[in-house]
Design brief:
The complex is a heterotrimer of chains A (110), B (378) and C (235). The longest helix of chain B is centred in the middle third of the chain and has 39 residues. The two termini of chain B are 37 Å apart. Chain B is an alpha+beta fold. Helices cover 33% and strands 26% of the residues of chain C. With 235 residues, chain C is α/β, with parallel strands linked by helices. The chains are: A mainly alpha (110), B alpha+beta (378), C alpha/beta (235).
């Protein structure tokens, strides 16, 4: 293995092997994940849920598909999320402090 | 055949040795290249997995959710409303849903409060999602108070925590019984948030939606297929945004790689002249360069992809989650099922490996076809 | 052995800066002897050397190698002839920087796909012959001028060529090293190799071992000097 070519090919082969293993690993994880997926599906059925919990900071983003007073999901058949900037980045910390008073409940809620 | 293989090994030896001469530069090229593949592959893998996950998980959500609108804004379903729907044929089952949001100023997060049709909860007891368990330190038996809409503090006892495996759908839920829910929100008796409908024949869903609209002009049916499509679009859109942001980086790398691969230094030109003078054919020189391009780009692709795979499916996509999933106070912590789209991987392969390999060959072609006697003249 | 017939060579033909480097050369290189092309710079001797070594094709005229006309051969065949029959020692040595001495030496063996072990053995044998085996793995840029030239000679000899071509071989060497170089050439000629040099170094031109000197000026052959043919006959 003193030849540079052999070392390079070995490296590529190793990387290719890792690449192949990643697919095998994906298959394994998919199998392992089936129970969790089944549990989630069952919960969705049982609780009549309509949306995944992805974004919780605002009412209109928690249930993207459910029109609300501030709904994002509106009438145009292809209209979906309308607030890209708000959903890409969290608000800066100094604004957060500044606007604290505007929180609907100022006092500790519990 | 054996000679051919031996020759290719010789050519690879040579190309590796020439790369080793500018080790720092070439290694950093490989690193930048691999990072680019890593980011692109991460975006593609994560978006695809999240999309498939959402579609699979929501496959059993109600086929139609009917909302009522007043002046174009969402409103509660009045008591007699459901009776009207009962007369539509093809509707297998329907049920009023009771749910709402509660903003917790301690965490600055919204919880979803819900009346569970699947649990019978005694008054004052709630079942919470795993995010609440984690973020508010709740556990079975612990109590928590929320300020009700009447202004009073209401204390609830946690009787159970929902399954961690399902965080993608249950992280922020608080389940309670109907009386507690109505009491907490001052929810008018007999009213519902919306109505879930199940349809016997899946092909009829759209027709029934139309019939609902005819019969209840102030309603708004949301079909499950629309919800699924919305999620698919949201992730597509986020992927697109990400790629648009990345496009500048891709372009910059493209220029860098083109310059590196296609720009032939005077020394390299001289070297090609030497090789040709001592008996290398044009084809040998081009094959040697081809190996250089292929080895770098293939290695970058493989390393970048494998790193992306580990990042997305073994490290919960730590770097991308805020951008692709959306920022959030209550991050659900969920492992995605690694659904991989082979076409996506193949596309990534062709768009990373081929252009670079081609770029290394373009100038070599020109240089390699020049006369070998330049060496003598130079 | 090598025969040139009315060779003319133009650069930038048909353009305003057209230049005829060779204007009708007829000559014959005898086998297993040392021939020198001499002349001032611009006389066309390097161009002539390129044509003799199949590095370039003449614009007009014929080149014959062992009686076969090779001036009309396609590039691929010319390259193969160059690789198998000719060895080159360039004025600047033209070694590939960054490679070790041995890696430079085996370069001409690569296109034929010979096994590496075989190439290495051959390269090491040549290095030993030239007393350079201790520098086998040194990067060529760290070698002295004389060592670099000996590496270049090893490289030229790798495919066991019949013709060895050297362009101004002593230009970058001091007198002692130049003398050693001439000794190496003598050994090679005695072993039956045809050697063609260009030079304007008196040390080379007047050396005992040189059999023929071709004088060039302005692209024309101005004189051929054949030395001690008797010495040859006795060999």
């Amino acid at each position: 293995m003193k030849r540079p070519a052999d070392r390079a090919l070995l490296l590529v082969l190793g990387a290719a092997l890792a690449f192949a293993i990643s697919f095998a690993d994906a298959w394994r994880l998919r199998q392992a994940h089936e129970t969790a997926l089944a549990a989630s599906t069952a919960l969705v059925r049982a609780l009549r849920l309509s949306d995944p919990v992805l974004v919780t900071e605002a009412r209109y983003t928690r249930h993207l598909s459910q029109a609300d007073l501030h709904a994002a999901f509106q009438d145009h058949p292809l209209a979906f999320e309308h607030f890209p900037s708000g959903s890409l980045l969290p608000p800066p910390a100094h604004l957060l402090r500044h606007d604290e008073d505007l929180d609907r409940e100022t006092a500790s809620s519990d | 055949m054996k000679t051919w293989i031996e020759k290719q090994r010789h050519l690879i030896d040579f190309t590796i040795n020439s790369l080793a001469r500018r080790k720092g530069k070439n290694l950093s090229l490989l690193a930048v290249y691999a990072v680019l593949v890593f980011v692109l592959a991460s975006v593609a893998l994560y978006t695809h997995a999240l999309r498939s996950e959402a579609v699979r998980v929501l496959a059993d959500s109600p086929e139609i959710i009917l909302q009522r609108l007043i002046a174009g804004r969402h409103d509660l379903i009045p008591p007699d409303y459901i009776d009207n729907i009962g007369r539509i044929r093809g509707v297998q089952k329907m049920e009023g849903r009771l749910w709402g949001y509660y903003y917790d100023s301690v965490l600055k997060a919204n919880y979803t409060l819900m009346v569970s049709p699947a649990h019978t909860l005694p008054p004052g007891e709630i079942i919470v999602g795993p995010a609440l368990e984690r973020m508010r330190g709740l556990d079975t038996g612990s109590g928590i108070s929320f300020r009700a809409y009447s202004g009073k503090l209401e204390t609830f006892i946690v009787s159970d925590v929902l399954d961690h495996a399902s965080e993608l759908v249950n992280a922020d839920l608080i389940l309670m019984n109907e009386a507690d829910f109505r009491n907490f929100f001052n929810y008018p008796a007999g009213h519902y948030t919306d109505v879930a409908l199940w349809v016997a024949n899946p092909l009829e869903v759209r027709n029934i939606g139309r019939k609902l609209l005819d019969q209840l002009p102030d309603s708004r049916p949301i079909l499950r297929e629309e919800v699924l499509r919305t999620y698919a679009s949201v992730f597509d859109w986020r992927e697109g945004m990400m790629l648009a942001l990345l496009s500048a980086a891709i372009l910059a790398f493209g220029i860098f790689a083109w310059e590196k691969a296609a720009g032939l230094s005077a020394e390299e030109k001289r070297e090609i002249g030497i090789l040709k003078a001592i008996g290398w054919e044009t084809g040998d020189v081009i094959t040697m360069k081809f190996w250089e391009g292929l080895l770098i780009s293939l290695l970058a692709f493989l390393l970048g992809y494998v790193a992306a795979y580990l990042h997305i499916f073994h490290a919960e996509a730590g770097l991308l989650q805020p951008v692709l999933q959306g920022w959030s106070v209550l991050y659900p912590s969920f492992a995605l099922s690694p659904e991989i789209d082979p076409l996506q991987v193949a596309t990534l392969f062709f768009f990373t490996v081929l252009p670079y390999t081609a770029a290394t060959l373009v100038p070599i072609w020109r240089a390699a076809t020049t006369d070998p006697d330049l060496v003598m003249r130079g | 052995m090598l025969e040139l017939n009315n060779i003319r060579k133009a650069f930038n033909q048909g353009r305003h800066n057209e230049h005829w480097a060779l204007r009708g050369i007829d000559l014959e290189i005898p086998p297993a002897r040392i021939s020198v092309l001499k002349g001032p710079s611009g006389s066309g001797k390097s161009t002539l050397l390129s044509i003799l070594g199949c590095l370039a094709r003449p614009t007009e005229g014929r080149v014959r190698l062992d009686g076969e006309d090779i001036s009309a051969l396609p590039e691929r065949f010319l390259t193969e002839i160059r690789r198998r029959r000719f060895g080159f020692i360039f004025q600047q040595f033209n070694l590939v920087r960054g490679l070790s001495a041995i890696d430079n030496i085996i370069l001409p063996g690569i296109p034929d796909g010979q096994p590496r072990a075989k190439l290495l053995a051959r390269g090491e044998q040549l290095l030993t012959e030239l007393q350079l085996d201790h520098r086998r793995d040194a990067a060529v840029e760290w070698l002295s001028g004389g060592e670099q030239q000996r590496v270049a000679i090893c490289r030229a000899l790798l495919n066991d060529p019949t013709v060895l071509i050297a362009d101004e071989p002593t230009a970058n060497l001091d007198s002692k090293l130049a003398g050693e170089f001439l000794l190496i050439l003598e050994r090679l000629a005695q072993a039956g190799r045809t050697i063609i040099l260009t030079s304007h170094d008196p040390l080379v031109i007047e050396a005992d071992i040189v059999d023929q000197v071709f004088s060039l000026r302005d692209g024309r052959l101005t004189g051929v000097e054949i030395r001690h043919p008797a010495f040859r006959l006795t060999r």
